[in-house]
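Section 5: illustrative case.
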């Protein structure tokens, strides 16, 4: 199922995220997908998220596809040079994976192998260009590919609530020029900022999927606000969680906030992407309360 085709047809899509296991056993991953993510458009599979070593995104996508799920494979520039990235892109095509989210990747210091060497041979823009070139039948060195070239739906990231809107719009424009067909935003907690960004981004006429996190506590919100680039958390939201820690701990408040943001922003986006971070069990409630099921 090609994500770009669905978006261009006017379908409001719903995606969520799964991190591959820290090991080779897929049972827990497929169980979560079967139990909580069966009725969404696609599952976005992370690529060594936060620089923590895990099973590869492509092999995890293949297991989920075999289990009946549609997937989006993330690929980051941090861990591979251009040879390895192109090889993995062709591998994805060979396995029937046709949706990609092409990212720079988190800094190595955030993860569980802080002494590892970062690569960044390509950045996210040049990675998108590389996919586009492979689709034309040649690699980055100008060598012809054998057989039918791959075809992908090519996604990219944008921080819609970053301090510099103009800077994000410039990055967005470069990614579109490189071949990006849709965008997924960093997590949005400030609906007003998102709507303001979208009023300017609509000039590009490219689908944008709203990033949603189900917040777990005031501490969780403050950590994201202070440490994750592109995330802006209103002070009133932090106070809301501080005032009712039990509702926050149970997930009731996090679900309520996620639904509120979706409802405030849904007229300005083409879909939602829910990042649950271990709270996948809450996703069906979010979708039900937001009127999607």
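Designed sequence:
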């Amino acid at each position: 199922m090609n994500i770009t085709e669905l978006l261009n047809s006017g379908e409001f899509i719903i995606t969520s995220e799964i991190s591959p296991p820290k090991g080779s056993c897929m049972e827990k991953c497929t169980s979560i997908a079967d139990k909580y993510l069966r009725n969404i458009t696609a599952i976005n599979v992370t690529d060594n998220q936060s620089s923590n070593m895990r099973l590869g995104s492509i092999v995890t996508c293949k297991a989920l596809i075999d289990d009946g799920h549609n997937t989006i494979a993330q690929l980051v520039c941090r861990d591979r040079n251009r040879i390895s990235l192109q090889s993995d892109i062709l591998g994805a095509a060979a396995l029937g994976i046709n949706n990609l989210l092409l990212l720079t990747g988190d800094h190595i210091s955030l993860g569980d192998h802080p002494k590892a060497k970062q690569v960044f041979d390509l950045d996210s823009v040049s990675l998108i260009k590389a996919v586009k070139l492979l689709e034309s039948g040649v690699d980055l060195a100008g060598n012809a590919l054998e057989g039918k070239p791959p075809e992908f739906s090519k996604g990219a990231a944008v921080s819609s609530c970053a301090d510099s809107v103009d800077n994000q719009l410039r990055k967005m424009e470069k990614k579109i020029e490189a071949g990006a067909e849709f965008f997924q935003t960093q997590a949005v907690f400030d609906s007003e900022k998102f709507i303001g960004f979208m009023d300017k981004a609509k000039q590009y006429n490219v689908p944008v999927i709203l990033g949603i996190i189900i917040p777990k506590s005031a501490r969780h919100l403050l950590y994201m606000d202070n440490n994750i680039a592109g995330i802006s958390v209103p002070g009133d939201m932090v106070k809301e969680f501080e005032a009712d820690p039990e509702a926050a701990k149970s997930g009731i408040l996090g679900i309520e906030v996620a639904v509120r943001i979706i409802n405030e922003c849904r007229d300005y986006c083409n879909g939602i992407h829910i990042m649950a971070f271990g709270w996948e069990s809450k996703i069906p409630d979010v979708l039900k309360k937001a009127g999607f099921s």
